[in-house]
Write a structure and sequence with these properties.
With about 475 residues, the chain is an alpha+beta fold. The chain is built from twelve helices and eleven strands. Strands 5-4-3-8-7-6 form a six-stranded antiparallel sheet. A three-stranded antiparallel sheet has the order 10-9-11.
Length: about 475
């Protein structure tokens, strides 16, 4: 629309300028008309008559224009008719002398008509000047609006240029590092020639925060047949993905070791936690380190978002505000530290009977360099009173704990030992049951011996 407006205003400006030029030309001709209309005597009657005809009809020879004014044309017609009478009077003067004619009176009357014609020409000229003044105002307004629109378009062009520069930086630069990305490399890789000079390409893949990375590289001199830049990049990219897979395995192993360490720390607070989150307060993130099949949170995500979901889906109405306040970063920063390493928050389950309630246990892990809370564990526990619990629920809970223990320990023996409340040694050969509270290493040795004896079909021992 702006460009269309600029086009329309430009056309209008051109038309106005042409009209103005026509008016200026007419005014110039009118000035000459006024000049000649005021001085009809020019020495010869033929010259005067030619001037009168030029004033009435226009004359290229005399450079006169025809004034398109009815009053002026009527006056010039009157002047022409009276000039014919005056010419006859001039002829009588030559024959009888001026004393015997009305030459003086008729000459004065002729000049009066000339003066009237001059006045009418001046009025016409004034009208043209007024019209020219209006045209000038229209032209000025048109130019002002045109310059405004052109200025706006120029400003918009500058803005688009700035946005294009930003867009180009986003397209061709990596957001995290500011280095050229693959799109930029495409321009560098468009040359199809085989590399002649020794060249190396390094490819980095940066992910997450804190930054972790994988790297791959390729050197042109490692390929005897030679290669292009694009082929060299493909080799480096392949090596980077190989390195990335190794890094992922190492990170997964490190994460698993950390999870085992964290779950081991949980044992000091009880073995009945069905679901546990490892939370990073500085990054506002969490990930599951233990979860039952029916747990309602995703494997990882935003901690603050998880708090909203916990309060909305797990907490009864009367406890929601209190639990929400206690799970905020400011509250945990103030109440969770090395001196007070845990917090317990009890609440009524949403939609459950009074005999079923939940408990959140928040366990301190560490602080960051600024002494602010960094990592902590948020553990979930469902508690049922004796009036509502039954054997099936107990068995389901024990099965869930045993399954989680197997997954966490990678050992069925360790899982059994971790969930056992009591340990018995049973000798079936001698039909003897003994209660033995042994450490884990002794139990493992005893289990190995029991399995060996079982294979030989001899004395058999079991541990429960």
């Amino acid at each position: 629309m702006i460009q269309a407006g600029i086009g329309v205003l430009t056309v209008i400006l051109v038309i106005l300028i042409l009209v103005m030029m026509s008016l200026v030309s007419g005014i110039q001709g009118t000035a000459r008309v006024v000049n000649y209309a005021g001085r009809p005597q020019d020495g010869m009657l033929a010259d005067v008559e030619s001037f009168i005809n030029g004033l009435r009809y226009g004359s290229d020879e005399l450079n006169l224009v025809k004034l398109d004014d009815k009053a002026f044309q009527n006056k010039m017609e009157e002047l022409d008719e009276y000039f014919q009478i005056l010419k006859q009077e001039v002829m009588l003067v030559r024959e009888k002398g001026y004393e015997n004619t009305d030459i003086i009176y008729k000459s004065e009357h002729f000049f009066e008509i000339c003066d009237e014609a001059t006045g009418l020409a001046e009025e016409y000229s004034q009208k043209k000047a007024s019209s020219l003044e209006k045209i000038e105002k229209f032209i000025t307004a048109d130019i002002v609006f045109l310059m405004f629109l052109i200025g706006y378009e120029f400003f918009k062009a500058l803005r688009y240029a700035a946005l294009n520069r930003v867009l180009q930086s986003k397209v061709y630069l990596d957001k995290a590092t500011g280095l050229p990305n693959k799109n930029k490399c495409e321009e560098l890789l468009s040359v199809p020639d085989v590399l002649r000079e020794p060249t190396g390409i390094f490819v980095f893949d940066l992910t997450d925060f804190p930054i972790s990375y994988a790297v791959g590289y390729a050197l042109s001199q490692d390929y005897e047949e030679g290669c292009t830049m694009r082929e060299l990049l493909a080799y480096a990219d392949k090596n980077m993905y190989i390195n990335k897979n190794h890094m992922k395995r190492e990170e997964a192993a490190a994460e698993k070791r950390l999870d085992y360490k964290l779950l081991k720390k949980l044992k000091a607070y009880g073995n009945t936690f069905s679901d546990c989150l490892y939370c990073d307060m500085r990054q506002d993130t969490y990930r599951l380190i233990r979860a039952s099949e029916t747990f309602f949170l995703a494997a990882d995500g935003s901690y603050s978002g998880a708090v909203e979901q916990i309060v909305e889906e797990r907490i009864g109405k009367k406890d929601r505000e209190r639990i929400w306040d206690c799970l905020q970063a400011s509250y945990l920063q103030e109440h969770l530290n090395k001196e007070h390493p845990s917090l317990e928050l009890q609440y009524q389950h949403k939609g459950e009977d009074q005999g079923v309630y939940g408990r959140l246990t928040i366990i301190f892990i560490d602080k960051d360099r600024e002494e602010n809370l960094h990592h902590f564990i948020l553990a979930f526990e469902t508690i049922q009173s004796r009036e509502v619990i039954d054997a099936k629920q107990q068995l389901t809970q024990y099965y869930e704990q045993l399954k989680q223990s197997v997954l966490e320990n990678d050992s069925y023996v360790d899982a059994l030992l971790q969930t056992a409340d009591a340990i018995y040694s049973v000798n079936l050969s001698e039909d003897r049951l003994e209660q033995n509270f042994l450490n884990k290493e002794e139990i493992k040795i005893l289990l190995c011996l029991a399995n060996t004896n079982n294979k030989n079909k001899e004395d058999v021992s079991y541990v429960f």
